[in-house]
Design goal:
The chain is mainly alpha-helical. It contains 19 helices and no strands. It is globular, with a radius of gyration of 21 Å.
Amino acid sequence: MQEHLSGDCFRQRAWTLPAAGPAGLIHETLLDLLASIAWPAAIAIAWTVGELAYRWLALPRISSYGIAGFVMAASQGGFLDNPSGTPIALLAHFTFGLILFELGYRINLRWLRVNPWLAITGVVEASGCFAAVFMLAQAFALPMVPSLLLAALAMATSPAAVLRVANELQSSGQVTERLFHLTACNCLLTLFIFKAVVGYWVLASAGSAFEAAWNTLVVIGVSVAIGATFGVAVPALLRQLGNIDRNATVAFAAAALLLTAVTHAFKFSPLLAALAFGLVARHRRAILSQAQRNFGTLGDLLTVLLFVFITASLDWQQVRNGLTLALAVIAVRLTVKMAATTVFAHLSGVSWRKGALTGLAMTPMSGLVIVLLEQTRHLKLYALDQVAGLAAIVLLLEVIGPVVTRRALVWAGETHQPEGR
């Protein structure tokens, strides 16, 4: 099992040095200083790397954030301790809550009613991905629960990567809108199936039917209910205050922060709650302007933190050990998604080419996986250690996934920036 470093990485590394005398005191003070600035420094470095890579190589910024986070992690010889269970993890949950709120806000339920083939496409590609990856995991001789976990997580498309790349390119059109809706469908199904697998794991390991039900049906139902309540209450408050255009960004960000804190404290699902919050808020006629998408500068800063957090949670040894399975899962997952979106393309109202590009754009999956696993730490699931290949999948798709999404949107002709940027 991976050793989780404590919050004071620098102290652990220097335990053999003398602590007595003036030299020891200076050394101790220096370690405290370095520990206190580690994450701010990492965010600044990752942002700089992202900007340079974007300008010089046309590489999506979030890919660079992921590379920088992985290199700076203590498990790779860097200076960032493992962020699991720290305040940084809570900030990452809040960031993902904002992202899922925005994704839910962009979902048009009326469109899904008018065009049910789009919803059918989402269900078919997600369930097909689950079945294919599960069979692949069994072929690699993984035990039952790790196979189910890997299959459930492989269904997901990362909303953080998809939204960030689309916002960066100012992308809009049929492929972009289908990408958002199918990503939301992926997230919803992944959250449900993941909670069901966790419940099965609890039942199999602890034999507690109550705890298993709590981690599936109760958590799902209460999380959605809390998110929907916020989705009704916040727009109502904004209408009472007036000047929605000016207040909406701060109000929704503050509500998402409170929602994340409440659901996290009571061990519910902040991700499901945030998705329900955004979905209900949109249909309560609360309007976010184009300038408020991604929550402006706040969203940009938190996105850097999120993607550094994701890859700083990984260990190179885990990545190397699971590389073969990871490559197989990535290939199978992409094949199933592209096949489903292509087969149902004409039925859902687009050309086969745009259907294939939609499936190609759904390559990223990493962000949601790490945040989901972080939220199960209290159950001591340790899926990154138990599920072979998962760390390698996260790292590869953290870096490659946004690049593939960017190319798919450019090839679809839906971007509003020059191709070379």
